[in-house]
Records
---
Amino acid sequence: MTLTLHSHPLASFCHKVLIGLYEAEVPFEMRLVNLGDPEARAAFVKISPWGKMPVLRDDARDRTVFETSIILEYLEQHYPGPRPLMPADPEARLEMRLWDRIFDLYVQTPMQAAVAATMRGEPDQAAASAAALPTAYDQIEARMAGREWVMGDQFTHADCAAAPALFYASVVAPFGEDRPALSAYFERLIARPSVARVLVEARPYFDMYPLKDRLEPRFL
């Protein structure tokens, strides 16, 4: 197998790349990374000096690719699927990259900080981190009014980033009834075959998720 994704089926940033891989319909091997095992961690750090997942290894091109947004663009360049996941217009590509970063930095990051604080038994810090999410929700609500996907009719890398970010963020801080465009967008995302597949594959691992008691029954 040419491509190997070092990943974990519960990790939100890994979900982002998995969605892109399934959209591209490119064959790959997924290699489970267990950072809780000292020997496995030591082996992984030899691949990823920062110890961060996911990492894509391309043996055919002798490349090891880090960071989710870069991995997705690498796949688009070297292993394009049946449908482009990036707009053809350069200005639209910049806009797509902006929204990719919004989902990573302003949804994923505070969500992960809230979950980490919960794991440490710091409810005040968890609440403070979660308090950053409504600002992002409002921006997404405005963006998605009248749109199917972030860039309009085309499913792109921004949507790959949105799906796991919003899935886990909705557990930390529900969207609320005053954000119908965001809620409808989320429903379209989880119905997308690539996203649904990722969630099904994550299901056996949800018992490890610190906020598993808050997950909607339809995901279990």
Note: The chain has a mean pLDDT of 95.
---
Amino acid sequence: MTREHPKPQQVVIVVDDDESMRVAMTYLFRSMDIAVKVFGSAAELLASELPDMPRCIVLDIRLPGLSGLDFQDTLIKQGLRIPIVFMTGHGDIPMSVRAMKAGAVDFLTKPFRDQDMLDAVMRALEEDRLRRERDSALSELRTRLASLTPRQSEMFSLVTSGLLNKQIAGILDVSEVTVKIHRGIMMKKMDARSVADLVRMAEALGVKTTT
């Protein structure tokens, strides 16, 4: 009976033109049960389909064609937010400063300790996992907000402004009972248990309040 292996839940993408380094990195990450994909250049990676799961890139500075730093710039311009761990045998302070300012997780000089690489990669994967969770939660909030009727959207804005039912009723020229009905439906659609929940949602969504 063939044993089924669980599908990987995260992946490290290694980009290095040195085949021996690609092999070494493959063994290192697989020894920790981390899936790995390797490429010899930035162009190869750009031409491939990236796995949609928590991921990071272990990227050599000096590559044929597009350099590691220029590749980092390319990803940023394309809106691809993938944490990067740089590695290089020819690093210098200006390079490391540029990489870190652009959001790199770490900058390791070859030869580096396996544990240093693993620590950097685990930080990068955790960073990407948390970002994905935030993005997913925000997408869900936007879906809920879009499900509101115009009146309910108005109610959302007024309630998160801190106004009481009586004040809202005066602004909308409706009864307090009507306000309570619309407010209740709105909060149910937004899956909010309190005004504090709604305020946090409004802040996350960037919704302007009326006050």
Note: The chain is about 55% helix and 10% strand.
---
Amino acid sequence: MELYALPVGDCSCPFEVVAPGVYDGMRAHIPVTSYLIRLPGDQLALVDTGMNRLHVDDPDLTWRGKPQAAMLTPVMRPEDSLLYRLAQLDIAPQDIDYVINTHLHFDHAGNNDLLGNATFFVQREQYELAKDNPAYPNQYWNLPSLSYELLDGEQELFPGIRAIPTSGHTPGHQSVLLRLPETGSLILCGDAVYCQENYDHDSWGSQADPKTARESALKLRALADAEQATMFYGHDREQARTMRWAPTSSYR
């Protein structure tokens, strides 16, 4: 099993969006990441699909005319599209067998529409909340051509890959634990933990349910300690500088 981290653009936002009380008033570019997993038997899975590729030419595509437009602005070069990142690994969208969505916000499910051959794993609670909800732009993921397998709690999806419920950012959010043969255990936090500053400053106030988000984040940290796992946060600027990025590197 092998994991590739795919850089799929940035989102420009006030830092209060990720860690209120830390750098209030500062606007930051936070990284957006999709992860490709090469499974045994050469099947392929993605964890999250990033922001829609059309944001390269139209950053206001999703939130034009809506209150979110002042808070969330995609910043994407042509090479930041998921299509480009997959092509660097000689992979076409139709080659993807599975997608694990941590949740269905626009920067985590924005290219689901490309992946019609895949089975999508989403927590049932998240799916039911997001359906027909404008906070989770349905045009990117709620399509009759896509097949969703709804999860109810923690589940082993494949040998060495486990979905971990981590509500708080949104109901039905999930993180992903991977046990890699050489690297060891990794936890893909999604937005259960945006960045290291959340832990350092006990800053959870931007989450939909701060109390539950804090509980989920502490649960993940305890799991990381037990597994001796590295945690990959959802949008950490400093961590992004040290990660191994595809196509030149991977985690095995």
Note: The mean pLDDT is 97.
---
Amino acid sequence: MPARSSKRSRATVKPQPKADRPFAPGYGIVGPEDGKGLLPWGWVAGKMNPCRTFWLATIHPDHGRPHVMPVWGVWLDDAFFFSTGRKSRKGQNLAVNPSCTITNDDGEEAVIVEGRASQLENATELERVANAYKKKYKMDPRSMGEPLFRVRPNRVFGFVEKSFPQSATRWKL
């Protein structure tokens, strides 16, 4: 009898970022080492997806001071996507220093994303992001002729006011 080939289609499962406690002396945030009370990674998408307006912080190149403005955006595949004008203060700041921070608009259940913005160039990715924008905002951001950016997080914080400091969570990506 011939040997059977056992080819199984295996879905690629993306590993979840490791959660721990943020370092915040004076706020009562401590352990525990067992992870009790830490927010799950899926909580981030649950807060970012329905959010309509986000806050984007960039750094002014001449003065080194922060610049914060509201933006529309979408959370896809553990990254944040948004559009801004090349000549806007945000766009000029990102052209010099791509480091930025994005937050949702909910101080009671806050998500803070730290990362670096890069302009989208891949047509397939642009199409996917534009479709998410159209679904959420009823507009195609490509119609403005301005760049779309991706922020891949390197650190994300989650804070729930009602259970703070026990639920304070940091993910390093």
Note: The beta strands are 18-20, 54-59, 66-71, 73-76, 79-83, 99-103, 109-119, 148-160, 169-172.
